[in-house]
Amino acid sequence: MKKDDSYYIRHALPALAVTVIVFLLPVASVLLKARNIGRTITDPYTWRLLGFTVLESGLSALLSVVIALPFCIFFSRYTFRLRKAMLTISDAAFALPAILAALGFVIYYGNNGILNNILKSLTNGKASLKVLYSFKAIILAHVYLNFPVAFSLITTALSNMPDTEEKASRLLGASEVRTFFRITLPKAMGSIISAFTLIFLFCFPSFLIVMSLGGNPRFFTMEAEIYKRTYTDVDPSSSASLAVFSFAVMALLLLATGYGREDKKAQRARHKLKPLAGNKKAVAIILCILIILFMAPPMLSILYRAFFNRDGDFTLKAWSGIINRANSGAGTSLDAIINSIAIATISATVATVMATRISMAAVRNRLNFLSLLSSLPMAVGSVSMGLGFAFLAARIPLYNKAVSFLLVLLAHIVVIMPFAIRTILPGARHIPVRLPLAAKTLGAKPNEIYRRIEYPMLRSYRRRAFAFAFALSLGEVNATLALGEGRITTIPVLIYKLINQYNYQGASALAVVLLTIAIVMFAIGEKEEKQ
């Protein structure tokens, strides 16, 4: 290793140390508490849980990719006015809190929800659609959350591919359909598999969607079962053993899929997007309408329900309830908003700073394993992470609200770190090596090169990473719910409690606040990207 290159390692060491320590502490706490690992592994119910978790994750990922693929093909070939808007909406939906999807589905697809009320009014009460509290509700919600992921990733990959082989195929007389299946699809298979893998890893530790929309222990994933054993059965040893098993399975999946390894660089000879002509304009309009019809109704339902009751009458009762609770001294809603913003701001700031240093060290020293190492927290579901911190808190003599806030903050940092690193890494790879070499030739020291050249060049990536991490932390509910124990209430936790109390209007009002903050932060991140 060159002396100058070692600067990036030294610079990243504190961030690496903090990441490893904060990650290992809760994992070690769970390991120490797990005393029935052998019994858990041999228990048939454990394998049934694993089988169902793999089934729902695989089916959710498969449907997300299959449904997104036709949209990806069209959006990667043609340019039109709404194209960029649709892709931006997909990027924003990627950071959509799961609690909003759960609430939106209950209000829109519920037995007495907006969709069923419309169907009943059109058919004089003869037609209705039963979606919630079933396996299909879980799958539909996962597809809703992850369709934008597949759409954005595959469209970007297809857009960056050169089309010289496709042109040659058509010149030789092959049809567009034959060219697609024989040339384009095999070339895109890497990005398709990558999108499938990422969505699978997102769905595997699913908890909130399962608990809110599954409604039956038959549909429990491993994370849901861990939460049940901890807080319903009050069996921490059993839940810890299951958490260790889940961690081992997820770690093996990460290693097997290679998630976090260096992505292949996109080829420079990207094809040029074609303008729309003829019936392609109608196809573009239809595809955009389909995306909007799929993505918009649950979120619009939340907005509607925040201001209208079940009878359709306009009311501000939910909003006055938020203010009155704040003024009454309980401070539930106001405290939740303040806590959410504070935790998201601090955790996103820390995660972005550490992710920047780790990304530069990984790129400059060609330490690709750092990318995989940074993805390991994904192997520990947020419920299991919260459980580990809860076990750790039990060993702290003076455990109070301040300590609880700190532990929630650390849990958020661990959860969002992999995504912050994945956002900044491409920027670090795109910095031309010749720039620091030229500065070095002119006598600049490594710290000056980093501070004056490389760090400013990462500004847009850092800003986007912060906005993305902020949105993820803002919507995080699993670890906070498992760790807060009533001491720390955030907006998603309060929404979850209101949903369980069937107070959908109060939950919707808070959801509008949550969604507004998330959209503002995403807009800030995207604005920087355009500059």
Topology at a glance:
Layout: H1 6-33, H2 37-42, H3 44-75, E1 78-79, H4 83-94, H5 98-109, H6 114-122, H7 135-159, H8 164-171, H9 176-203, H10 208-214, H11 222-231, H12 236-257, E2 274-275, H13 280-307, H14 317-327, H15 332-364, H16 369-375, H17 382-393, H18 401-430, H19 434-441, H20 446-457, H21 459-475, H22 478-484, H23 491-500, H24 504-530
Parallel strand pairs: 1-2
Helix pairs in contact: 1-12, 1-15, 1-17, 3-7, 3-9, 4-7, 5-7, 5-10, 5-13, 5-24, 7-9, 7-10, 8-9, 11-12, 11-17, 13-24, 14-15, 14-24, 15-18, 15-21, 15-23, 17-18, 17-22, 18-21, 18-22, 19-20, 21-24, 23-24
3D architecture notes:
There is one protein chain. With 531 residues, the chain is mainly α. It has two domains: 1-33 and 316-531, MetI-like (MetI-like fold), CATH 1.10.3720; 44-216 and 269-315, MetI-like (MetI-like fold), CATH 1.10.3720.10. 76% of the residues lie in helices and 1% in strands. It is built from 24 helices and two strands. The chain has helices at 6-33, 37-42, 44-75, 83-94, 98-109, 114-122, 135-159, 164-171, 176-203, 208-214, 222-231, 236-257, 280-307, 317-327, 332-364, 369-375, 382-393, 401-430, 434-441, 446-457, 459-475, 478-484, 491-500, 504-530; strands at 78-79, 274-275. It has a two-stranded parallel sheet with strand order 1-2. Helix 11 packs antiparallel against helix 12 (236-257), helix 21 packs antiparallel against helix 24 (504-530) and helix 23 (491-500) runs antiparallel to helix 24 (504-530). The longest helix has 33 residues, at 332-364. It is globular and about 60 Å long. It starts with 5 loop residues before the first helix and ends with a helix. The relative contact order is 0.13.
